[in-house]
Amino acid sequence: MAQPPHLLIVDDQSAVREELVYALEFEGYRCAQAEDGPSALTLLDQDAEIAAVLLDVKMPGIDGLEVLKRIREKRSDLPVLMISGHADIETAVVALRNGAFDFLQKPFDSDRVLVSVKNALRVASLETENASLRDELAEEYRILGESPRIEELRRILDRAAPSEAQVLITGENGTGKELVARQIHARSRRRRGPFVPVNCAAIPGELIESELFGHERGAFTGAHTARKGCFELAHGGTLFLDEVGDMAADAQAKLLRALQDQVITRIGGQKSIQVDVRVVAATNQDLTKGVEEGSFREDLFYRLRVVPIHVPALRERASDAPMLAQHFLHEACKRNGTEPRILAADAQEWLRRSPWPGNVRELRNLCEAVTILTEGHTFTAKDFQSVAHTSTRPRDGDFFALPTLEEFREGTEREFIRRKLEENAGNVKRTAERIGIQRSNLYKKLDRYGLK
Questions:
Q1: How far does CA 272 lie from the centroid of its chain?
Q2: Domain spanning 145-310: which superfamily?
Q3: Average pLDDT, integer, range 290-316
Q4: CATH number for region 6-135
Q5: Given its phi and psi angles, is residue 159 left (phi above 0), alpha (psi -120 to 50 degrees) or beta?
Q6: CATH for the stretch 314-390
Q7: Per-residue pLDDT tens over the stretch 251-293
Q8: Residues 5-22: what's their mean pLDDT?
Q9: How far apart are CA 67 and CA 185, in angstroms?
């Protein structure tokens, strides 16, 4: 049976302490007492079970405000209720601003004391539960692998995540750039705030400003109501700008101002809106080249790239492939209601040797398919090969091993289009322009080769 909550009452007047102890112990709480600040801090160091503190504002030596400050430094999750007389109300208000949960005014109203204590314990319990959920979320977004490249990535994250610096994440499509961004958010001081992702490549250029900064009613055709943008939605948290290299020039200028001043203005509005947002950006493009060619603002590039983080391709950390596969297979088996299976030695070797042009995303999708389409107690290399070879593209990249010219032609064309789509973040219009064919023709080829 769980013990009742343990409270600490701190006041230099014994009569005050005894009055509170009587009222609280009658309701089943356990109470400890301290007559001054140093004694209270010593008790808190010795007893981790103390669930809340009732703390007098005016005490000789170390006053209540200083004790509150030290409690917040050591145990920021511990609720503190300040005790004050009529003359100390102004000080109590300052204490509330500095993190106190509530204040109790002398002479005490027993019902008021009990309600305040109960509320403090309830909120603390919710905070503990939320912290546990955030830890689970951070675990969900953990970065798997033991290769030197991943160890280096973790080392950089350890330094970058707790800071307030802007981060620019680079890497090929499918490497897990958003995973890294979510890990940064989950391990930052903003983890209690929102994480708002925006795919800049998926939003037409004429709409990206509205998406980021919002708009007022009537700002443009179809703007029937006012709408908050992602900067406002991410207030107090993290805004993740994926494929930031595809952002239009006008939006780049406004983004730069927002980063510099933490101020935005909705489209069609006049009012400046203060925001508190950390921006983490990602791209699969070479933004240095974009700066040289004039397609990306140099000042914005350096503003975003305070902390650069590169996510390696899976082929650059091939030793991690079996570990990643085992994780994805376990998740897929659980999700699809099948018995868990293990990786055979030949499967692990095959996974390490495969080129993985689609990176971790390709591996995850293959693991999902293997789980559904194969049987047995273990996953073998043959299982992976049989599923992977349903694609026209050979797994080992050897198109010359295909038996006919037609299969060779289709295989290389499919792979060429797939890679160009990845390079352009799935943007069909831009892909068609860059490979020199009509968009309608490209759509036909996407349908023919089953590319989405």
A1: 27
A2: P-loop containing nucleotide triphosphate hydrolases (3.40.50.300)
A3: 95
A4: 3.40.50.2300
A5: alpha
A6: 1.10.8.60
A7: 899 999 999 999 999 999 989 999 999 999 999 999 999 999 9
A8: 91
A9: 31
